[in-house]
């Protein structure tokens, strides 16, 4: 009897692993193996023609520490992420709270807020490139200024595009979370005489924390992987004023063909994202109250 049960359990385990095998193969082939290979390549030189890569140790990381463009891109990326994350999340929450109310044209507003999300980033960048033309800003009564060609405004102009693109996407999650809340909570707050602000701060916001954590993780990742609209709007200029880490990585790896240095940049970028994600899940998750 026991032997039969053991054989049955063993058969079930083998069957379970066979079901997981396709997903495991894809995960190892396209995630774990490239990650390990990139880490290994970061300690080698870039192969040039018939010359194979050789072990150089930490030379690529020393070159990175002495690279002013890397530090410029890092500062730009921190500024970009520090602006887009709170602005996009705050705007998404405000839009979700508004379209969750019984207002005229609610369906149209929801569609209008979500439309930028379904547009390709290249199309969005071209739309905003048209808006940033001096002729258009002048026609709108705004002061004539080369927003994308000025070092003091190029990064801010790029940041505005990213916020406009991401806020509608995050709004959907907040709207779904708001609609899942028990309507009796609002009725009870109204009976107690609580204002809308008090109801939001004391009831809605704590219950929205799981959604906020999820949105925050996605916003941080987006803040460091944004690259496509940089190609259309500024190409990192002027004078690297809008260069972000991923765009700098692209230029190093595919424009200058320094694949080893690009691998070192990738390792640093992954380390930044991994440490941020670990902080969010192990520190911020303790402040999240799940229903």
CATH second-level architecture of the largest domain: Orthogonal Bundle
Instruction: Give the biggest beta sheet.
Output: none
Strand content: under 5%
State the secondary-structure class: mainly alpha
Question: What is the CATH topology of the largest domain?
Answer: MetI-like fold
Shape: globular
**What's the CATH H-level superfamily name of the largest domain?**
MetI-like
pLDDT < 50 stretches: none
Q: How many beta-strand segments?
A: 0
Mean pLDDT rating: 85
Distance between the termini: 43 Å
The gyration radius over C-alpha positions equals 25 Å
Q: Strand-and-helix sequence, N→C? A: HHHHHHHHHHHHH
CATH class of the largest domain: Mainly Alpha
Can you count the helices?
13
Portion of residues within helices:
over 70%
Protein model, in words:
The chain is mainly α and 291 residues long. It folds into 2 domains: 1-29; 67-287, Orthogonal Bundle (MetI-like fold), CATH 1.10.3720.10. Helix content is 74%, strand content 0%. It has helices at residues 2-41, 59-65, 68-99, 106-118, 121-131, 134-139, 154-179, 183-191, 196-207, 209-225, 228-233, 245-255, 259-282. The protein starts with a helix and ends in a 9-residue tail after the last helix. 25% of the residues are buried.
Blueprint of the fold:
Layout lengths: L1 H40 L17 H7 L2 H32 L6 H13 L2 H11 L2 H6 L14 H26 L3 H9 L4 H12 L1 H17 L2 H6 L11 H11 L3 H24 L9
Helix pairs in contact: 1-13, 2-13, 3-7, 3-10, 4-7, 7-10, 10-13, 12-13
Which short descriptors sum up this protein?
mainly alpha, MetI-like fold, 13 helices, globular, 291 residues
